Fold each of these.
Amino acid sequence: MSSNTESSVLNAPKAGTRWLWFHKLSSPPYAYRTSGVLRPWFLWSAVILLLVGTYGGLLLAPPDYQQKDSFRIIYVHVPSASMSLMVYVVMAVASAVGLIWRMKLAHALAAGCAAVGAWFSVLALFTGAFWGRPMWGTWWAWDPRVTSELIQLFLYLGFIALRSSFEDTQRADRASAILAIVGVVNVPVVKYSVIWWNSLHQGPSITLTGASIDSSMLWPLFVMLLAYALFFAAVMCDRLRVEILKRERNASWLADIGAKT
Amino acid sequence: MSVAEFFDMGGYAAYIWPCYALSLVVLVGIAVSARRSLAAEHTRALRRVQSNQEQAS
Amino acid sequence: MQPGMLQLLGLIVGRDLRLAMRHWDQVIQPLLFFVIITTLFPLAISPALDELRRIAPGVVWVAAMLAALLALESLFRPDIEDGTMEQWTLSGQPLSVMLLAKTATHWLLSGLPIVLMAPLVGSAMGMPPSAWGVTALSLALGTASLSVLGAIGAALTVSVRRGSVLLALLVLPLEMPVLIFGARAVDLAMHGEAVAGPLNLLAALLLLFISLGPFAMAAAMRISVET
């Protein structure tokens, strides 16, 4: 389906300019151009924050009372874990928008997110294992957060697998969108059930010192969280553009934009 | 703290450094792969546009 | 619900039941699978009932889940293959309700036998009679949830060639809460403790899935039906 059908579906902007931003946002050339412009900003701010956060986390933050230096893993573990969850929500929301408003661009966003989110899950699991070994004495434990992170990875892989089983991009978009929405509704259920299941058996769980976390330990974590989010945005600027191009059979507007930024 | 002490990470070096290294590798990997696929897809799309224009004319 | 709707549902249920009666040898296959799977565990672990008793709730539940997965093959595929499903999507009738009726009938044929067989199988693994009732009840609620979730997955993958493993990959993560609560209920019953908690959670999940599931099923089916 070409972009002409897209714009005719959305029609002219509604009363006044209230819907203009929405109309503009859903136009592939606009999104393509904007992604190109925004990417360097996202990328370089992410790199700066990553450096600052790593420096703060590895050097400035004092060793934890119980965990000594091994707690420093949280500065890469927690950001990956939160991103793995956040990206899934973005994916599900984009899927819903794509289904409800028949917006190819939203489906493009969802499709681009999946692999990145899966990698975040993998990172969360690996760094979690490396954290667990000195803390619990084991590489793997059926801790509620570990278990639900593993399930999160399965949800990502299922989304990717479903997409690849359809040859037609449109059908793949819509089928995987349904899966993402069903999945996101289930995520709180799964998390709750896993916590419930684990609490019965009193497994180990990651905690820092019993007293409130010192702010000198906390600020690098916020910096890293923001850094990972900005990095995700930077990567998505590229991945979104790839997905846009895959869905545009005749991207004649591409020549006007010129060489990729 | 000396450089050696820093790298030792209070004895936890074997756990901390692989984590940071892996995170760096994966993040860089994602970014590079996205760049590469954009370049490839961009070329492909431009080629399509060109051949469409040639067919039309 | 209009009287026409009820008639339609009656037709759907009746048709599926009649078709099943004609091929009852296919209908009992999931049940046989269920029994065979549970047999594997004593062989793999130990014949000692004391050891088996500890894992009995988990084994019965996992076997039921796998058997339910297998049964999903027969839920939508026949109607897709003979074009009935396409007619349904074009019929102008609410597809979600029609698919839910089909799923319910399918549960009667595949889930219910497992529910009835489970206490027997459980006792073969050392489960005391005090737990049989809860086993059946939790599986009744659980297999119904598995049917609804499975139907969503089946609708998504029915047009995919050799999509049964994909179906399992999609549906099993979503089914994990059902497994957690269900196995826990049986375990509690075996220890003589209160089972209301997990059973209520199972019931709540079933209600959630029944109310939202059919819409996902219908949306998925429309995608699968188009060529």
Note: Chain A has one domain: 26-257.
Amino acid sequence: MATLVVGISDLKIAKPPDTLVTYALGSCVGICLLDPVSRVAGLSHIMLPTQSVAPGDKNIMKFADSAIPELVRKMEQQGAARSRMKAKIAGGAQMFGSANDANSNPMWQIGQRNVASVTDVLRRLAIPIMAQDVLANYGRTVSFDPASGIMSVRSLNKTSKEL
Amino acid sequence: MNQSYDDLSDLHMDVLKEIGNIGAGNAATSLSMMLNQPIDMTLPKVNLVEFNNVADRVGGAEALTYGVMLNLEGEISGMIMFLLNKDFAHLVLNILMGGAFDSFEDMDEIALSAIQEVGNILAAAYVNSISELTGLSINITVPEVAIDMAGALLSVPIIRFGAVGDKVLFIEENFRSAAESIMSHVILFAEMDSLNLMLRKLGLL
């Protein structure tokens, strides 16, 4: 059994007994997808909401609106069906500054924009979000186990959550 | 005109290295004054580092790290972030406040504002180096401090760089006092327009 590490602007597919992990999400968002019948799972670590933020950038794994469809496509190649897929998501924190600070740079709200974009893309793909641990102001390491469908979220100085 | 940090020529990289060198030199002087003891430094390492390799350079994605972030405004827009490891932050706090800070739990508002002030002074040192070289006028915003996993703090500058490439401008500085050697890391981001303006001011574009 292996633990597949998903980097920044990266995505990977796993089946039991392998598991997936992505470390220290800040404003980035981790999207865990599972088809509970085929047990094909995927984890994507996106950093920006839409490809339109960086015209010409060829890395489709960087953006929510291109990475999630790519993750779904790769899962389908492994035998998953989109109609059965369920999602769990984590991340999208605002690491610095106060959310209410009128002077704060719009880039500081990128976590929130990432979560909104992920939610929108999943809704358009008709993939329900079963659990989420998003926003707030702290980092999260996310592990996903295709066998149980449990997403574990670990943070510094907080008890870890199983969702 | 550079469209992305990935397009920078060796000559342009040399300019960024020089900014890093002068900035770190100014920072050592400022730190020395703030801590009231001689602070020396070795030549900083200035590199463009792939997103996925940055966290390893600062002790690992999940390592507890102090981050201080400021935005650059005026003729240049961008941001600067300092990542101080626990030892550096505690050393500075112990000297400045005469306290015994061993853990994250000991941090109170006074300690946080001391870290904020360190960030302010270090940022001014870098910004002055850019202004000295280019003649551009740059303002810095009030520093924001966060203590968290290195990777999570890094996501903030990585996202800014993410819109213009797949690497960050990463400066590793090594300060030495009589007793200790401490490392800090700086991530300096200028929007592409600002970077091109800096290079133009230097006659390199």
Note: Chain A has a mean pLDDT of 93.
